[in-house]
Amino acid sequence: MNRLFDINNPFFRFMSKFFDIMVLSIVFVICCVPVLTIGPAITALYYSIAKAVRRDRSYPVKEFFHAFKRDFRQSAIVGIIILAISAIIVVDIRIVIGTGDAKLGSLKIAYVVVALLIAFISTYIFPLISRFSLKMKDLFKLAFFLSFKHFLSTILCVLILAAGVVGVFVSMGLFLLFIPGLVALLISFPMEKVLKKTLEQIGTGTDHNADQWYAE
Fold it and tell me: CA nearest 118: which of 144, 153, 150, 138?
């Protein structure tokens, strides 16, 4: 009976993690409202999930805003660049489809390939920002390189993200209460393995924390 109400039993630990994920998801959505802050919000969500939820280091919301503030400038610029390119691709695809010209079929394929490349790079670049101190061009180069070097992990992460988007759409936004945090958590499993290998290879410009939680 005593074990049933022990806060360290599996049920209470699960509920605690679920609550953390829900709170972080809500904070993430709020921070995305200005749109231009989507980049910092994604970076902070991944960082707080990987550090506080998975490894129980510090408090989730505290780590979220720590990363949000620390990486704001770089992740905001990256987010704006990705949003701008994505918007251009979507508009161009709609224009091409609207023309109904069969000769433009190859152009549609080219746009789809570019969209996939953006999705691949986006999957890696925000976790990289949360972990490494790199120049902008190096971030994009590394994200591009890792997306193909660890192609199976990339596909898995993209599928997880796509499932999350579909879940939010089907639920008419209701799943926003926990889907962002859950997606970040699931992506962190293959992503952390990639980041550890990357850490071993580049060795410098690593995480800002002295406790090296990411090496566990």
Answer: 144
3-state DSSP call for residue 172? Answer: coil
207 contact partners, CB below 8 Å, separation of at least 6: 130, 131, 132, 214
Q: Per the structure block, which two tokens stand in for 118? A: 């953006």
Which segments of 33-150 does DSSP mark as H helices, in order?
A: 38-48, 60-70, 72-99, 105-131, 136-149
At 150 the three-state DSSP class reads: coil
- The phi and psi torsions of 82 (rounded to 5 degrees) equal -65, -40
The Cα 113–Cα 6 span in angstroms is 52
Nearest in space to 199 (alpha carbons), one of 130, 123, 121: 130
Tokens 């790079």 belong to: 121
Q: Between vectors from CA 134 to CA 34 and to CA 32, what angle results, nearest 5°?
A: 10
The 10 Å Cβ neighbour count of residue 43 is 28
Count of helices and strands (H, E) across the chain = 8, 0
Q: What is the pTM of this model?
A: 0.89
The one-letter amino acid at 188: S
Task: Find the helix packing angle between 38-48 and 72-99, rounded to 10°.
Answer: 120
Give pLDDT tens digits for 165-210. 999 989 877 888 999 999 999 999 999 999 988 887 776 555 555 5
